[in-house]
Amino acid sequence: MDADKNQNILEKQLKTLGQKIRIDILKKLKHAHTPLSFSKLQKEIFGNDLTSINLSFHLNTLKKSDLILSSDNGYSITFLGEQIIEKILSIEQILNRQNKALMIRTSKYSKEVFDINKIEEYLVKEGELERYLARQVAHEVEERLSKTNIEYMTAPLMREYTNAILLENGLEEVRHKLTRLGTPPFEVFKLFNSNNVKITPEKFIKKLGSDVSEQFLLLNLLPKNLADLYLSGEIALLHLNYWGLRPLSLYINTKTIINYLFSIDSNIPQRDKNTTGYTHFIINFIDLLQRLKQFYSEDLILGNFNNELISYLELPKIRSANFNFFISQISQFNTFINNGKSHLSLEFNYNEKTKEQFSNQIHNDINFLNSLDMQSKDRIKPFLIFEGSKIFTSDLGNGFIKNLIKGSNKNSLIFYNKDFSNLINSSLIQIPDPNEDKIILDKILINLHMISVEANQNDDLFFDLLQKKLISVFELFNFKEKLVQQKLNSLQQWDSIVTQIFNRNKSKAFENSVKSISFFGLNQAILNHCGIELDRTENSEEFALKILVLMKKIINEKNETKNDTFILSSPHRDSYLRDSWYNGIVPHTQDINEYSARLIRTASNLSLSKKIILFKKFQKIIDGGCLFIEKKANDMSFQKFLKTLLQSEIGTISLRDCAF
């Protein structure tokens, strides 16, 4: 009797399921997280099609067969209904494979038959989705594919189906984890078909790899709230492709490198006057610089370069072949990176020298720089940093400066006064102690203009938003340190460099590293917030100074409470900020220089003396590297201009806008 009864039940259920719409109802209810209302169910099945099918009739039939049930909240599937629809889906899959084997082109460039189990495993493993939810999504993917006429599909298309279903079911975080990295084909085609002669095959590959590295950082390594700060333009991160892989810069006193080379290679005799000894030394010196490249993204700063290396080699005395070889190697340094930016900074220091020593050093340096200029044509030259207090005060030094700023080096020259500002690198980051080798972890810039837009001329809101941005920047530095430490700790060469050059254990490599916080859009922020530029009224000037004072105060509190090493630094030079970070904040039709590195506008009508007074107010707040950029007035001699700058006690000066 039981067998007959079961047979009758089976026949009844098969009859109930004999219409496609009822199977569709069961599928929708199976994949629903909550009961579905009548209207919701109708829309899920029919969409916007005003069908004449009586949905109520089919729902009542399914209820009578105990396959679904209804409540005040809507319709849901029963345990029996769920078990039966599972079997139906299995039968559909068998029939699909029998009649139309759906082929998948995988990301491994092979073809294989579609397998629902692989989607489920993919969701569990990569999306960290619970097994039962992964199974539901996989079945939904299979169901939708069964309704298409696709016989051959790609893995990206399969992911699109999967991602759409995840979004429909409110599983956005899972979809975020599954986002694939890569450059859109349209952009790749543009790059591939470009007539730009600078895009070599190597650059083509590097560009695609950089794009993937940037996407990996923003989609997978950084928390979404921090990544969004960059994507929205609220902060600027430098060298995004290397951000989680390398520190920004290394500062090494040249004497440290020379002593290191002596210690690891006994074939380099100290102060050797033999041609072979010089050649061997130069080869080892350049080789070390090349090996250091993989451990920074901005620049390697060689402190006291002229006193240690140029003096050591006695360039005027060594044979021309060695001299030319050394210059050629230095001039080619940036070609290996070849991104239009100098990644080597050289410091020239003239302190504590007699008049005769100073004269000899100037002649040696002129010889070096002129030769470097000749061999560096069509190449990116090293960034040049001069301790200027002595060369500004002598006739010989004035002639040297004129020669420098007339040449092609002008835009890469920085003069600093050790009494008022310590050594800086090409990103205008202060090196607190030029006698101590340092790792510069990073420089992160806050967009003050965007804060002013959001604050809408409310002072309290402006400072509240600024404080929140600073807290986020502190978080970003924590992430950067962890990511870079994790990546570099596995490299044996990094261990050697940290222990032998920076004299510390690799686990503590970034202790006391320089962490630079900066800003951009200051003038635009003041104009937007106060209605007039900071150099035109006392109120605007006062508000600008308040901004920097608050930043400095919060940074100092962070250093005191956490024993940390954050500094407030000057913005980048205009061209570098423009080239390194664009992100669509300024329309292409608008001049990007509205986000200038200048603290005082180019168009300011202040006299030179008043500009200096205003600038020194900023200099007191910013931790060194506060760059004064100014061209001499037409009625002022060059000597008078230099004397005015020297007597002003300005810490860091650029003469890039000066002309004769």
Number of domains: 5
Question: Largest sheet, described in full?
Answer: 11 strands, mixed
**C-alpha-based Rg, rounded:** 34 Å
Helical amount among residues, as a percent range? 40-55%
Number of helices: 26
- Unreliable parts: 579-594
Overall body shape: elongated
- Strands, count: 16
Average pLDDT figure = 81
Query: What structural category do the secondary elements indicate?
Result: alpha/beta
Q: Proportion of β residues?
A: 5-15%
Distance between the termini: 113 Å
Summarize the structure.
This protein has 26 helices and 16 strands. It is of the alpha/beta class and about 650 residues long.
What report would you give on this structure?
With 660 residues, the protein is of the alpha/beta class. The chain folds into five domains: 2-83, Arc Repressor Mutant, subunit A (Orthogonal Bundle), CATH 1.10.10; 100-177, no CATH class; 181-213, no CATH class; 249-416, no CATH class; 440-603, no CATH class. Helix content is 52%, strand content 11%. The strands form three sheets. Strands 6, 7, 8, 9, 10, 11, 12, 13, 14, 15 and 16 form an eleven-stranded mixed sheet that branches. The longest helix is centred in the C-terminal third of the chain and has 30 residues, at 459-488. It is elongated. It starts with a helix and ends in a 6-residue tail after the last strand.
